[in-house]
Write a structure and sequence with these properties.
This protein is mostly beta strands and 279 residues long. It is built from 1 helix and 22 strands. The strands form 8 sheets. The protein has a 4-stranded parallel sheet with strand order 5-8-11-14, with no helix packed on it. The chain has a 3-stranded parallel sheet with strand order 6-9-12, with no helix packed on it. Strand 20 and strand 21 form a beta hairpin. The longest helix is centred in the C-terminal third of the chain and has 4 residues. The chain is elongated and about 110 Å long.
Length: 279
C-alpha cells in the first residue's frame, strides 16, 4: 500500500519507519522520548534514484535529485568517526577532525585545520595538510618521526626492505669513495655548502698498511700523504656540516617542535608537520 501527501508534520512526537515498532534506546520512549526525532530501519537512499542499483549500505547518499548542489553531504560542526573509513576519490575537509579507527584513503586529500588521528592511516596520496599542525599518534606514522623508507626487497621475492635514516646533532653531509692519488677533490658545490672547519676524514687502506695521513684540507680538496712515498690505495669518508643555515640546537626546553628556540622555518619535522614547507 502506498500513501501520498504533499506534507507530513509530526508535532511533539517521533517518526518511526520499521518492520515493527522499534525505537532505539538513544531516542528514548514514553516520557523520556526525544521529540522531533526519527528512526528508519534502513536501508535508506537519498538523492537521485538511479545512483544505486543495489542496497550497498545502510545509508546511501547520491547526487541531488531535485536541485543542483555542489555537495552531496554538508556537515556543520564537529564530526566523530568510530570504525574504519574507506574513501574513494578526492576529499576536501575544512575544520578540526577527530578520527578513531583505521582509515584507508584512495585519491587526493586536502585538509585545512588541525587533525588528530588515532589508529592506522593508510594513504595512497596524502596531498597536503595546512593549518596550525597535523599530528598522528598511535598510528603507522610515528610521532617520534623516524625517517625511513620501505621498498620491495631487491633480492627476496615476497619480502620488503625497510631502512631508517642516520641521525645526528648537525646538518651533516658526506662524500665517500676510493682514492688512488694523494688528492681527493671534493664536489665543487662543497665550498658554498659546507663549513670547512667542520670537515673530518676517515681513511681505510686497501691491501696493505700505507700509514696514510691527511696532510691538509680546505673547502675544495683533501691532501693525503703516505709513508716513504708508498702508492696510495684507500677508501675514504669525508663529513662536513652545512653552512647555509643556522647551527642546529639539538636539545631545548619545550612541549612541541613549535617551542624550538631557533629558526623553525629551516626545518620540516617528520611526524609533526611533515611534509609542510615554508616557501
Amino acid at each position: 500500500m502506498a500513501l501520498a501527501w504533499d506534507e507530513i508534520w509530526a508535532y511533539g512526537g517521533q517518526l518511526i519507519c520499521s518492520a515493527k515498532k522499534i525505537v532505539p534506546k538513544a531516542l528514548g520512549t514514553g516520557a523520556n522520548k526525544i521529540d522531533h526525532s526519527a528512526y528508519i530501519q534502513g536501508p535508506l537512499q537519498v538523492g537521485t534514484a538511479d545512483d544505486y542499483s543495489s542496497a550497498d549500505a545502510t545509508v546511501m547518499i547520491g547526487s541531488n535529485g531535485t536541485v543542483s548542489t555542489p555537495d552531496v553531504l554538508y556537515v556543520k560542526g564537529n564530526k566523530t568517526q568510530e570504525g574504519d573509513t574507506l574513501q574513494t576519490g578526492d576529499k576536501v575537509h575544512k575544520g578540526d577532525l577527530t578520527h578513531t579507527g583505521d582509515q584507508t584513503q584512495t585519491g587526493d586529500k586536502t585538509h585545512n585545520g588541525d587533525k588528530t588521528h588515532n589508529g592506522n592511516l593508510i594513504s595512497s596520496n596524502l596531498k597536503s595538510c595546512t593549518g596550525q599542525s597535523c599530528s598522528w599518534s598511535g598510528s603507522s606514522i610515528n610521532i617520534q618521526g623516524w625517517k625511513g623508507f620501505d621498498i620491495q626487497h631487491p633480492s627476496k621475492k615476497g619480502h620488503r626492505l625497510r631502512h631508517i635514516c642516520l641521525e645526528g646533532p648537525e646538518g651533516g653531509i658526506y662524500y665517500r669513495g676510493r682514492a688512488s692519488k694523494p688528492l681527493i677533490p671534493l664536489p665543487p658545490y662543497w665550498k658554498d655548502l659546507v663549513d670547512p672547519t667542520t670537515i673530518t676524514v676517515s681513511l681505510t687502506p686497501i691491501g696493505a698498511h700505507q700509514d696514510i695521513i691527511v696532510k691538509r684540507w680546505d673547502a675544495e680538496n683533501i691532501h693525503l700523504q703516505a709513508q716513504g712515498g708508498l702508492p696510495i690505495h684507500c677508501f675514504f669518508h669525508v663529513f662536513g656540516a652545512r653552512i647555509d643555515g643556522e647551527r642546529l640546537i639539538p636539545e631545548y626546553e619545550g612541549e612541541s617542535p613549535e617551542d624550538y628556540p631557533g629558526d623553525n622555518t629551516q626545518y620540516s619535522i617528520a611526524g609533526y608537520h611533515y611534509d609542510r614547507r615554508t616557501e
